[in-house]
């Protein structure tokens, strides 16, 4: 059992990420550019010299890692491979060298969903595309849960886009777990954590269910897609917006341009008691039955949710600070954890080509049962449904949560 993500490894200083540019793995996969650098490794764009197909290659360093950090690297790869799906970034193979593990992934050249929402406002005011994209994300999470895998870091930065934003792929299984019930409090990204995940002083033996925590995160993503902003900074009574929502279940409708149908769906998603929260299957049906996500709004000059200053109105008496997107939150490991919880079930092992010097090995994926829902994202892929996002911004909408730029990680 590996209950809590370890601290980020210290940079070894042995290799600059750009030093690997033009490196050829197994005489076939050539690293061509750096896409992003994070605490746990570097992501490269790469090209297959035989087929000319482009890939994203994540280089995970081995140097400077302790045993626990190595186990977390292995777990991320194993859980990602276990969850192959049309709306999950494909993991093609792994390659080993003396200093790195190279994970060859599907390449999504259009970047992440966060950029599509905040910079292009592609889905705000376009119910068809927002529904299409959200059902794809929901389908991917359903598949993960059917495999006993819980993502725990669902957010637009971890959803990559293709097809001009019409097809999305879930990525980054760095915080994923197979624990149905967990005591990893504070695990994830603050804006998307459920209230039960944010206990600052958890008591011994306290825990929460992993599945409803993912459902809560999906609700915040749904608000991101339809409104271009977050519903609150943190699902805690310390947050004035969330506190107002706790007092009035219809509060979001007073500050966001959401329809009555979507308001009722969000009330079921943002149910405080996890056992009463809507399930994934119920949410899928509710989204299909939702007649509209947004309501007509008075058109005002185009404004960016990134740049707009925070405002207050008489409808809300608490000042909402500008939102700064935090990195993943890694809680401390409880001292009692590991003594009272059973070990995780065995994981599927992704294919490996061994050391980088031998020939590359291609492999067929093992046949897997089809998931309950496969939403490939073609039904609503018509250009004529795209609308101007400015129609959804009203002068009296608060809080106007601002999102900063996001890195590849």
Overall description:
By secondary structure, this protein is α+β, with helices and mostly antiparallel strands. The chain folds into 2 domains: 17-106, Phosphorylase Kinase, domain 1 (2-Layer Sandwich); 113-331 and 370-392, Transferase(Phosphotransferase), domain 1, CATH 1.10.510. 23% of the residues lie in helices and 14% in strands. The protein has 8 helices and 11 strands. It has helices at residues 67-82, 113-118, 127-146, 210-227, 240-247, 251-255, 260-269, 280-289, and strands spanning 24-25, 29-38, 41-48, 54-61, 91-96, 100-106, 159-162, 167-170, 181-182, 208-209, 352-355. The strands form 3 sheets. A 7-stranded mixed β-sheet has the order 1-2-3-4-6-5-11, covered by helices on one side. Strands 7-8 form a two-stranded antiparallel sheet. A hairpin with a 4-residue loop joins β7 (159-162) and β8 (167-170). α3 runs antiparallel to α4 and α3 packs antiparallel against α8 (280-289). The longest helix has 20 residues, at 127-146. The protein is globular and about 60 Å long.
